[in-house]
Amino acid sequence: MQIMTSIAENNIRLDAVMSVHKMLKPVVFIFCLLPLMMIMWQAFTNGLGANPAETILDAMGNWAVYFLLITLTVTPLRRLTGWGGIVRLRRMFGLFVFFYASLHLLSYIWFDQYFDWHEIVNDIIKRPFISLGFMTFVLLIPLMLTSNKAMIIRLKANWKRLHQLVYPIAIMATVHFFLMTRADFQQPVIIALILSVLLMYRLVVYFQKKAARL
Amino acid sequence: MSFLIKKPDDIKSSEITSQSVYHERREFIKKMSLATTALIGAGHLSLAEAKAYPELAKSQFSSADKLTSLDDIKSYNNFYEFGTGKVDPAKNAKNFNPKPWSIAVEGEIEKPGVFDLEDFVKPYALEERIYRFRCVEGWSMVIPWVGFPLADMIKQFKPTSKAKYVEFVTLYDKEKMPGQAIRVLPWPYTEGLRIDEAMNPLTLMAVGLYGDELPNQNGAPIRLVVPWKYGFKNIKSIVKIRFTEHEPVSTWHKIGPKEYGFYSNVNPDVDHPRWSQKTERRIGEPFWSPKIQTQMFNGYSEQVAHLYSGMDLKRFF
Predict the structure, then answer these.
(1) B50 touches chain A (CB under 8 A)
(2) With a threshold of 0.90, does the pTM exceed it?
């Protein structure tokens, strides 16, 4: 709080604030890696339970979805708190979605199919929940590739339009979760509820802006 | 002291002449087991020696596969009556008390009745059966069950000519089985077999595993084991056995008729609609290693294939 009040007073203090902001990213980065580090720690200490392949596959998929929800929370949170600094974390959260989704896909390819490409292609063609999961991953690729400054500048207005893909991606990931569930839908229902609040927020903002323009 | 501990084993069922003598002896055994417990408490005996079924006949049907560890068998369960997570049953079944337990046997039989579990199990010779266990989800275990052939029991109850199927029902008691408070499945859990499947010598009524009583999370005090069918057919904590003329409806079939058939025989050539059944993850093997090939009828073709000759197994999945 002391730092906050002194921002207006002098530039030397401002530097201190900037360094806190600079610290923010690496600290959050470490936190985002914690789920993976937890899994690795458990793998080395025999803590993944009777079916580690399933534990890893599920955990990576869950964390990809959690980071998707975290990414989508950034904009509403900025508007509600007025803290602009959080937007600087959005790209990192988004890249962690891709990171955990990749590990989820790798776990499937390795533990579930053991690199049997014939079976994998078969699965993608024949099984809706795997088709959907695969398509969701494919859609993440352009977002990951265009997540740097150079691409933002190059794509201009198209960049924003491209990155609106995050909305169908989030819906597809949630449906993927529903389609693979056997009987207990508690977890995907909670995710669907959170996602609908986040999407509703955007709809409300969109219509408010539209009304303001009229 | 070894004389006292050996005593329970000396009581053979053939020596039992009357109910009263039997009960006197049970009292004696109880007192002895209390004494044994006291000894264990005092550290004179290791727990390993206090197993419920220390001496069991071996079976020709036993698999030579490497046994899954007791720890894995007890900590990785699909038993939705105690929660839908794999580790939930181990936690939520801790306080489940399967004693006393009674079983109702009814329907198309000459001698229906309700029996105390002890009396129900008493007439049969228990044996150890090491069976492969294949879950519909694509994982498998190798489990040393303790039990008796269901056929032995069925013969006792003299089914009528109308008895074409056997239906099994799990206990429905929200107080004892907290998972039943949520309707993830239409309780009570029910399962069924065709009478010839039930009479097959492989079909087992299990009351234990690893030489001991069934752990609660594995379906205490009594469950069905049908090793050539997917795991969910192996209904747990049975309170009712009903002989019927018509095919019973299994619980999973009720909520997913396209995914879980009445037969549900292990079959690598018939996929579950959402995943392939060609391979399985053997619990206990390194997770980075490839899965193993699933065998037709889980490797029990020799004993059971004839039950389905002429049947289209893709249709009757």
Answers:
(1) no
(2) no
Cβ contact (<8 Å) for A51 and B139?
yes
**A25 domain-assigned:** no
Note down the domain range covering A153: 51-213
Residues B112/B105, Cβ–Cβ less than 8 Å: yes
The class of domain B70-308 in CATH terms is: alpha beta
Amino acid at B146: V
Crossing angle, helix B19-42 and helix B2-10, to 10 degrees?
A: 150
How far, in Å, CA of B13 to CA of B20, rounded? Answer: 14
Choose among A49, A53, A127: nearest Cβ to B281: A53
**Position A146: which residue type?**
T
**Pairing state of beta strands B238-244 and B165-170?**
antiparallel
**Ranges for all domains in chain B classified under CATH 3.90.420.10:** 70-308
Rounded to an integer, the average pLDDT of B159-180 is 97
| Inter-chain residue contact B75 with A50, CB threshold 8 Å | yes
Q: How far apart are CA B5 and CA A37, in angstroms?
A: 51
DSSP-derived secondary structure letter, B67 = P
Cα separation, A185 vs B208, in Å, equals 32
Please state the ipTM of this predicted complex. Answer: 0.84
